Amino acid sequence: MSDVRTQAVREPLCTETPGCAETPGGAAAEEPSRTAVAATVGTPTTVSAPTALPELVGTGLPVPLVDGRSVPYANLDLAASAPALRAVADHVAELLPYYSSVHRGAGYASQVCTSVLEGARETVARFVGARGDDVVVFTRNTTDALNLLAGAVPGATLCLDVEHHATLLAWRGTAHRVLRAPDTVDETLALLRDALTAEHTALLAITGASNVTGEILPIDEICAIAHAAGTRVVLDAAQLAPHRRVDIAASGVDYVVLSGHKLYAPYGAGALIGRRDWLDVASPYLAGGGAVRSVGVEDRTAEVSWAPAPHRHEAGTPNVLGAAAIAAACRALDPVIDEVAPAHERALLARLVDGLSGIAGVRPLRIWADAPDRVAVASFTVTDVPAGLVAAVLSAEHGIGVRDGRFCAHPLLARLAGGADAVRVSLGLNTTADDVDRLVAAVRAIATAGPEWDYREVDGRWTPTPDPRDLDPLRLGAVVGPGGAACGH
Ligand SMILES: Cc1ncc(COP(=O)(O)O)c(C=O)c1O
Q1: Which amino acids are annotated catalytic?
Q2: 238 lines ligand 1 (CB under 6 A)
Q3: How far apart are the CA of 252 and the centre of ligand 1, in A?
Q4: Which of 333, 364, 398 is where one domain is finished?
């Protein structure tokens, strides 16, 4: 087995791209860097070398185990929040000396920051294939973007019950319907067609990739169905954008929402990208400075001329570092998002699914077994072992980070797991075959022999008892109490 995480430039794990040194079933050879590949094998200049996967900050981080050992962290929880791309962290560090007010200052640094923010809109728009007249509004995250859009929809909304809570709940206050998704993709498309034809709906909200199963619906077909019924589509690309190209113009989708922290740009920003008309006339998402053209006070009542989108919905000082981080992530992902990253992640997902399928008691969760594609996210339950305990053992005894719970998708988990919690493994750019093999071996040990350490449940979280690990490596005095941070996730 190989562990190539210490490489500064990582080669993708794939079987199709010539020049890949690592295959799902085999050991990795000594992997030369990208430039070395071309030099040592004499690749003709007309044949491009495989594009390297961009590096992430924190790859190979040593983490403590309860037995006193330390191992490289296998972060298999990228669907929750992904570490920064090195290019993103570097860009933010480069920008920091210029940090200053945006849209509010004549000073040089202010003008640089204003230009960075407006340039970030263009970069994000290009990355997602936006139409020329689409608008990019920077938000805090996907949830924020959906709530913003909810205030702009001139009519009823619809979604499936498989969605993340962000997509299920943002529409409260609009006439909102939730449909139970059938078991096949074809039936799901037919259901959407019937529902949208039967009742006029302004907006269909649909996930780009399920945060529970990674499954992807055919978004082009869904857009065609919706548009035929006069319905717009918002694509929740929180899980899709880090793994597959999102192309607004080609797919016909009307709005896209995404989160920087899932796109390897964890600096507190997200985005809503899409058609301008609804956003230009909607009530401002927040009222305040930056969202207005002018304000007067007559008879003690403020008279306001609101700016058009995007500024209309970005009142207050914008998060220029967050926006710049997303733009830097778009630039770094652009060369790999069409082929290299998907090939790498597909090979790893196949290895994961294959490995887990051989373990008695492990039951994978699927919505549509016939989904045409799937990002590298897999959830499962283990017979007689609570999901929270599985996750605690993976962390405490194996140095592996996964997510447990109902993944902010309670209705879906009610269907797929009878309301029980499950374990979710999610892979990405810096995941290696070794990470996947460690996970599979650890789950096998848990399912067959159980934990080696003692654990107890405190406030709904499974905790190693005792837990000798240093949980305050930054020496901030911050203590995660027994049970950690349990909440309704
Ligand atoms: C599919 C999906 N949509 C929306 C969200 C909400 O994202 P955020 O918490 O960044 O707002 C998530 C988060 O996990 C998600 O997976």
Answers
A1: 408
A2: yes
A3: 22
A4: 333
Q: Residues 282-324: pLDDT tens digits? A: 999 999 999 999 999 888 788 999 999 999 999 999 999 999 9
* 318 Cβ contact list (under 8 Å, min separation 6): 102, 103, 117, 138, 290
In which domain, by residue range, is 373 found?
A: 57-83+339-464
pLDDT of residue 300: 79
Number of domains the chain contains: 2
Q: Which CATH number fits the domain that encloses residue 261?
A: 3.40.640.10
- For residues 265 and 85, is the Cβ–Cβ distance under 8 A? yes
The whole-model pTM stands at 0.90
- pLDDT at residue 363, rounded to an integer: 98
> Is there a domain that residue 347 lies in?
yes
392 and 284 share one domain: no
Residue 44, domain member (yes or no): no
> Does the C-beta of 143 come closer than 6 Å to ligand 1?
yes
Quick check: CB of 84 below 6 Å from ligand 1? no
The Cα–Cα gap between 433 and 22 comes to 8
224: left (phi over 0), alpha (psi -120 to 50) or beta: alpha
Please give the helix or strand (H or E) that residue 379 lies within, else none.
strand 377-382
Q: Distance, CA 234 to ligand 1 centroid (Å)? A: 14
**pLDDT score, position 6:** 31
Q: Are residues 296 and 309 in the same domain?
A: yes
**Is residue 130 situated within a structural domain?**
yes
Residue range 410-468, pLDDT digits in tens = 999 999 999 999 999 999 999 999 999 999 999 999 999 999 999 999 999 999 999 99
d(CA 82, CA 88): 12
Judge whether residue 26 has pLDDT over 80: no
